[in-house]
Amino acid sequence: MAAPNCCCSRATMAGIIATPPQPSSPASLPKPAFASPPHRIRSSGFGAAAAVSGRSTVGRSATRTRRSRAVGGEGETSSSGSSTTEEKEEEKVFYEGVYGPWTIDPLDVREVILYRVGLVTAASSFITAASAAFLPSDFWLAATLQQNLDLFYLLGAGGLGLSLYLIHIYVTEIKRTLQALWVLGIAGSLAAHSFLAVPAGESLVKYVVDNPNAVWFVGPTFAALTGLVFKEGLCYGKLEAGILTFVIPITLLGHLTGLMDDGVKLSLLGVWMALFVIFAGRKFTQPIKDDIGDKSVFMFNALPDGEKKALLQQLELQKLN
């Protein structure tokens, strides 16, 4: 069964089938509800496709997390007649997925936070470097920025690479394509810096600005960025991400072809900067689960083919019952 095509996380399948199902032809399953409201369930009461928090190994059954507190007073013995034990069952938030319920573990949270930090690093580096284009040439800050343009480019590319490494996309081929574009862009940037910019006595960024054809060397990095914002706009309906999907390539193509004058390019650059600030800032207003998506899809994809078939059959039996 094909996984839905949108965004999300990397995990292994936690929990599997309670009893071996009878052979049955898998039927189409409902589409994932990424924004479905959470509900609290006790994992021990979950039957066929129990799930537990954490990245547990396949086949491990769900268990209850209990916290025991011995209650007793001075002079009491440890015998059952002289002390009692109070057990409190800790409930976890589970979300309904295509292939069963799933929950968020600490590793998921860490990956999402790092993903967002990478975006903020890329955005802040780009905005800082691009602001030099709007400052008077005799302003002291402009001179400082001009001297460190390559450093900002390096930081921004690094932040983008981190986000592309941790990005949550169901279709692995799409994720690998974005990562390959980033690698190609980094390789091209290094080549342009070493063989073109340095011999000309310029920084890489200044060389690309002065020589539009050099966009071919750094372009794949921005193509990867365009793919990332397109994914964000498609999955979450973010207007700023959708506009950036067009602003980024139009600005670069306008510079490459020479069809835009400097005034138009500066205007588009300003729009790019403003939208990038909004885009990166709003990532931290989203719930963590939004950047994870339907974790059950990744749990399902991590299973061997035989277990995938068995799980589909079990889900179909549940549906019929």
Structure description:
With 321 residues, the chain is mainly α. Strands 1-4-5 form a three-stranded antiparallel beta sheet. The chain has a two-stranded antiparallel sheet with strand order 2-3. Helix 1 runs antiparallel to helix 3 (149-166), helix 6 runs antiparallel to helix 7 and helix 7 packs antiparallel against helix 8. The protein has helices spanning 106-130, 140-147, 149-166, 172-197, 204-210, 215-236, 239-257, 262-282, 295-301, 305-320; strands at residues 39-41, 66-71, 84-89, 92-97, 100-102.
Taking the alpha carbons of the first and last residues, their distance comes to 21 Å
Which class do the helix and strand fractions yield?
mainly alpha
H-E order: EEEEEHHHHHHHHHH
Strand coverage percent = 5-15%
Q: Which residues sit in consecutive blocks of at least 5 with pLDDT less than 50?
A: 1-6, 8-90
What is the helical fraction, as a range of percent?
40-55%
Major sheet attributes: 3 strands, antiparallel
The dominant shape is: elongated
Brief summary:
With 321 residues, the chain is mainly alpha-helical. It contains ten helices and five strands, in the order E-E-E-E-E-H-H-H-H-H-H-H-H-H-H.
Describe the secondary-structure layout:
Elements: E1 39-41, E2 66-71, E3 84-89, E4 92-97, E5 100-102, H1 106-130, H2 140-147, H3 149-166, H4 172-197, H5 204-210, H6 215-236, H7 239-257, H8 262-282, H9 295-301, H10 305-320
Antiparallel strand pairs: 1-4, 2-3, 4-5
Helix pairs in contact: 1-3, 1-8, 3-4, 4-5, 4-6, 6-7, 7-8
